[in-house]
């Protein structure tokens, strides 16, 4: 793949460069191998959709801190709000002395999340903590024990969240035993459905499995909650139908089960709506949020029906650092940006541009590009070895990602089979930056596919 003249990307060295190599040596000597790293270099500066590393290489960021940066790196309004908060207080701890930004953010989320009913919100530090606490609240409110998640779903790395997560390697391998009374149901994957089976037939078959499950595993009357990603993130940007999601909600209503929407990766404009569940005409009982809520600062939220959220007694939910003042003021500005800059609409425009590129490539390389999936600015391309067997091509995916990284585009993989390229660019990315990044990614895909043809 030959280098091209770029307006934004500026690759001064190979990756990792000399300074990054020195830091890599320190990283390997002092930090466990467990925390994974997408690009083998170190950040020096971030702005909007651009990241500069310690060797002066400038990248276009299509990963966005795994979907945490819908408003981009270092958005000025958020930075200013954080600086102003630093002069007031850092962390009195909401459980010791309360502070107004916590209340203001709860009010905002109660208003903007789906549903006209009375809602309440409280805050934690991470998406996994939000999931853990949503399960606690659901069990407390219903007095039931079982929780159902979905195959290929990802809900975090703490024990309950990991138990609800589906992919064994790398998330669960060797870490058992897992939390009891957690169960998994199949989630629609229309691309990999049996040949000739329609989308409606897939949905009907999977929804019927709930009734079978209640007969052979746990009665519906003992299930506290079903937790669902409206679009599976780590699972490969797999998008269910409106019919399926509404069918799951109907199951919940039939048996008095709470519906938890995990919006950690899909929230805050990413899919073209404030929250992905809005695409399906479903109002969840509880919702978990994190990632892009605060431009990368560690804060998460659980929002839900007031009577459900009030089920735990005083002191039964919370945490020392939950809802930090810095996270709260950052989140308030992020929500302002989401509304003022119409970022949800921008997500649709980004997704259209990406889909156009990916679908054109699919027409040309239909034997290796199996599927293109997009909802708003959650865009993915799935790579296979054979169009009939749909055998996943993890090796090709890895090569494409590495090629893109070397030429200045940060992009990540996903999927149960690690054969999906996913894009989570900041929603503030300019049209020019998006086009340049897609040019580089397209060239990487072509170079690796053409290399396979020659070999």
UniProtKB/TrEMBL annotation:
<dbReference type="GO" id="GO:0034386">
    <property type="term" value="F:4-aminobutyrate:2-oxoglutarate transaminase activity"/>
</dbReference>
<dbReference type="Pfam" id="PF00202">
    <property type="entry name" value="Aminotran_3"/>
</dbReference>
<dbReference type="InterPro" id="IPR015421">
    <property type="entry name" value="PyrdxlP-dep_Trfase_major"/>
</dbReference>
<dbReference type="InterPro" id="IPR049704">
    <property type="entry name" value="Aminotrans_3_PPA_site"/>
</dbReference>
<keyword id="KW-0663">Pyridoxal phosphate</keyword>
<dbReference type="InterPro" id="IPR004632">
    <property type="entry name" value="4NH2But_aminotransferase_bac"/>
</dbReference>
<dbReference type="InterPro" id="IPR015422">
    <property type="entry name" value="PyrdxlP-dep_Trfase_small"/>
</dbReference>
<comment type="similarity">
    <text>Belongs to the class-III pyridoxal-phosphate-dependent aminotransferase family.</text>
</comment>
<dbReference type="InterPro" id="IPR015424">
    <property type="entry name" value="PyrdxlP-dep_Trfase"/>
</dbReference>
<dbReference type="GO" id="GO:0030170">
    <property type="term" value="F:pyridoxal phosphate binding"/>
</dbReference>
<keyword id="KW-0808">Transferase</keyword>
<keyword id="KW-0032">Aminotransferase</keyword>
<dbReference type="InterPro" id="IPR050103">
    <property type="entry name" value="Class-III_PLP-dep_AT"/>
</dbReference>
<dbReference type="InterPro" id="IPR005814">
    <property type="entry name" value="Aminotrans_3"/>
</dbReference>
<dbReference type="GO" id="GO:0047298">
    <property type="term" value="F:(S)-3-amino-2-methylpropionate transaminase activity"/>
</dbReference>
<protein>
    <recommendedName>
        <fullName>(S)-3-amino-2-methylpropionate transaminase</fullName>
        <ecNumber>2.6.1.19</ecNumber>
        <ecNumber>2.6.1.22</ecNumber>
    </recommendedName>
</protein>
<dbReference type="GO" id="GO:0009448">
    <property type="term" value="P:gamma-aminobutyric acid metabolic process"/>
</dbReference>
<comment type="pathway">
    <text>Amino-acid degradation; 4-aminobutanoate degradation.</text>
</comment>
<dbReference type="GO" id="GO:0042802">
    <property type="term" value="F:identical protein binding"/>
</dbReference>
